[in-house]
Amino acid sequence: MSVTIKTPDEIEKMRLAGKLASEVLDYITPYVKPGITTGELDRLCHDFMVNEQKTVPAPLNYAPPGHIPFPRSICTSVNHVICHGIPGDRVLKHADIINLDITVIKDGFHGDTSRMFYVGQTSIQAKRLCEITYECMWIGIDQVQPGAYLGDIGHAIQQHAERNGYSIVREFCGHGIGKRFHEDPQVLHYGRPGTGLKLQEGMIFTIEPMINAGRRDIRQLADGWTIVTKDHSLSAQWEHTILVTDRGYEVLTQSEGTPSKPAFLSSTTHA
Ligand code: MF3
Ligand code: CO
Ligand code: CO
User: Residue with the nearest Cα to atom 4 of ligand 1?
Assistant: First the structure.
């Protein structure tokens, strides 16, 4: 598989898919409260996507090589779950943190984005992990421009996470995206500057760092999907779908409720 350069027409479709994915997160935000189950969050998102947006939830029955089909329409990853949590009977309680990861297909193109949510009042430590992870995603995004390297993104993310005492999950990464959910290239969240693929205008990929409060080691649960921290430490993740533009980047997964870029990066304009 090779890295595709999107045409102006494809980019327009990716803009729409990205906005719709982000709007699912806006829609579900008020429901993320103590007492709701992850299965209820899934059903609400599923119905919104299918009935209101007329989008297709990409996770539902998604079955990459070596995996059984994913049985739900969104991923719900609570506390020490790193990613790919399967919605079910788990009841959210005060102080939980949860990642909701949404991927929609509209007119044949994918938009992929995730955010962290605090359930009720959250501990200072959990908030700090979520905030630093958000900064990590944005520090990575801020590297994106034609002529930069994928290694620049990974390095910037890794530095910020490790400087704050956290570890980066290595087994999962960002990815090219378009007509397919997961395309080349792989976008690692660690690495060395000036290495790897050189970015070109028209590439579209996700940046989605998974960051653990403790050690980086992971374990897969017997359900075949859920990934947890081996040491049961908290884990956080944020994700955007990014277009490489002539001067920098454009965040495709944006909507009314998208949190703003961290203030300490706002002076740098690549977009
Ligand atoms: N949305 C995830 C990503 O960011 C992939 C989820 S695959 C699923 O790449 F099958 F678990 F939904
Ligand atoms: Co993704
Ligand atoms: Co995702």
Answer: 112
